[in-house]
Specification:
The chain is an all-alpha fold. It has a domain of about 280 residues. Helices cover about 80% and strands about 0% of the residues. The protein has 16 helices and no strands. Helix 4 packs antiparallel against helix 12, helix 5 crosses helix 11 and helix 8 crosses helix 9. The protein is globular, with a radius of gyration of 21 Å.
Length: about 400
């Protein structure tokens, strides 16, 4: 055998072995990572930094900081970034597939078996609606403490919540986020982290720039395509891509954006939407796979594939496109200041979602309020894993339905 051909085959075999390793390890994390993005980051650190030594503590911390700065699901982006550092483009895709696929399959199956069920007559489903109240309250409370602890940012939260409720449109939410970012540039002058280091990435900045440009082109071009084609699947892709591109502050913030895309269109009822959101708390992996449930419940298997791909595509374009420019972003006072305003605005948007549709659709009686209060106590006081609280709420809802 030709020596050059032998070397090429050896390299390809090594590359495939590396990709398989990334896929299997990320899939293990996707099957076991309960508890939301903060818990996910802890699992990642243990697996990739402490156990595998794929990157050091400082590099991991800088990667996490970058993903916190970017819109999208932070834990999924960290996984993509680690996969990219380890095995390039295909490594990023393998990491995403492994971490995401288990919860995608679980939520698609949930949507499939839920189809045709009368939600108003199903006690355990109503329990899922109620637990969504506790989960969103916990998210709003925790985010407000971290992201709106002073008077200016608390004011942005309140104004954003009022405007979101008065002008219920996904486009108004986008406008609120943009305006809050502009206000943040002038109100908040963050101190830069002079101790940060450049993540060790050897990647062409021109290609990275193309990915970032593609991110913005799709964001602006897809709504036009949607208007001219009148295709439900293209409308689904546009709405979920935009939702994935504009979510700052954690997975829970995607709730109002997705609700504005699927419920007013008549693709799902508000009860179906919240039942899926409650179920999403019980599965491991990223909360963004809630999109898979919505796509399946709206348009079947094609909808599930389109929705899942669309909501994660912005994250992929941003993390791979931003990595070579991380050093500049990390030291940009304007960029960091804008994020203070944006993060406060998304707390306000989530606060509005807590009222409508979460509270108005779930809390119908004093028993519902008591169940929501109990679930909130289990989450915040007793620190129970979310999936346990979901099971508790579903069982309690079924029992209350049987008794009444």
């Amino acid at each position: 055998m030709d020596k050059g051909l032998h070397n090429n085959l050896k390299k390809k075999k090594g590359k495939l072995s590396l990709l398989l390793e990334v896929l299997l390890i990320s899939m293990k994390l996707g099957l076991t990572s309960f508890g939301g993005p903060i818990a996910h980051l802890g699992y990642f650190r243990e697996e990739y930094v402490n156990r595998r030594k794929w990157l050091d503590e400082k590099t991991y911390a800088d990667l996490v900081a970058l993903c916190q700065f970017l819109p999208g699901p932070a834990s999924s982006q960290v996984g993509m970034g680690i996969g990219f550092i380890r095995a390039g483009f295909l490594g990023a895709i393998s990491s995403w597939l492994g971490f995401t696929l288990p919860s995608v399959i679980a939520l698609v199956l949930f949507a499939y078996f839920l189809k045709g069920t009368s939600l108003s007559e199903t006690g355990w489903i109503h329990g899922l609606l109620v637990v969504a109240v506790a989960v969103v309250v916990q998210a709003v409370w925790g985010m407000a403490k971290n992201l709106a602890s002073d008077r200016p940012r608390a004011t942005i939260v309140i104004v954003a919540a009022i405007l979101t409720l008065i002008i219920p449109s996904v486009f108004s939410q986008v406008g609120i986020i943009i305006v809050a970012g502009i206000i943040g540039c002038f109100l908040f002058r963050s101190t830069t982290d002079s101790n940060s280091v450049l993540i060790p990435i050897s990647f062409n900045k021109k290609i990275a720039s193309i990915l970032l440009v593609l991110f913005f082109v799709l964001l602006g071009f897809l709504p036009l395509v949607r208007q001219f084609t009148h295709s439900n699947l293209i409308a689904l892709f546009d709405g979920f891509y935009r939702s994935g591109a504009l979510v700052f502050g954690g997975g829970h913030v995607v709730l109002p954006l997705l609700q504005a895309e699927v419920v007013p269109q008549g693709w799902l009822t508000a009860d179906q939407f919240l039942a899926g959101y409650g179920a999403a708390q019980a599965v491991p992996g990223p909360l963004f796979t809630f999109a898979s449930y919505l796509g399946m419940a709206s348009f079947g298997w094609k909808g599930a594939i389109v929705a899942t791909f669309a909501i994660f595509l912005p994250s992929f374009l941003l993390i791979i496109g931003a990595l070579p420019f991380w050093n500049w972003l990390r030291h940009s006072p304007r960029f960091q200041a804008a994020l203070h305003g944006i993060n406060a605005a998304v707390v306000g948007i989530l606060l509005a979602a807590l009222y409508n549709p979460v509270w108005t659709k779930a809390i119908k009686s004093p028993f519902d309020f008591c169940l929501a209060l109990a679930a909130f106590g289990l989450l915040t006081v007793w620190k129970c894993p979310p999936w346990i609280v979901v099971v508790f709420s579903a069982v309690t809802g079924a029992l209350l339905s049987f008794i009444s």
